[in-house]
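Quick one, tokens below:
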């Protein structure tokens, strides 16, 4: 499953399970853009490439919203020793999620459909807790 297909599946899940939740999905993520489109996309996102894929604008517990950076099944974020992988884009995304958490938002990587579904369900039930 591509990241774009995962994003569509997650959007369908949110609409079915949480129909009153306002959410946004970044259509530009996970697709190939021309150089001109990529420059415009970056400019429209505040000059940052690492904006998360999805936003659930639903206050729960101590958070105003949940930001999700979607990853296909099998994607590794951390090495076996617990350190971050060396992929530059994943590192940028990691930093963005950390910045969003510092500002009081729930913000996480989610790997695969089942991992994303669990993150959303935990957040919606007020059970979200970031683990460093």
């Amino acid at each position: 499953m591509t990241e774009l297909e995962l994003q569509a599946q997650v959007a369908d899940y949110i609409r079915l399970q949480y129909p009153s939740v306002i959410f946004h999905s970044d259509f530009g993520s996970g697709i190939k853009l021309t150089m001109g489109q990529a420059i415009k996309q970056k400019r429209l996102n505040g000059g940052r490439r690492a904006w998360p894929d999805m936003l659930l604008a639903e206050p729960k517990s101590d958070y105003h919203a949940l930001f999700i950076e979607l990853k296909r099944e099998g994607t590794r974020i951390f090495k076996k020793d617990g350190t971050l992988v060396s992929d530059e884009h994943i590192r940028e995304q990691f930093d963005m999620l950390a910045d969003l958490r510092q500002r009081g938002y729930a913000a996480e990587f989610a790997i695969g459909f089942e991992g994303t579904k669990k993150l959303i369900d935990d957040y919606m039930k007020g059970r979200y807790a970031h683990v460093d």
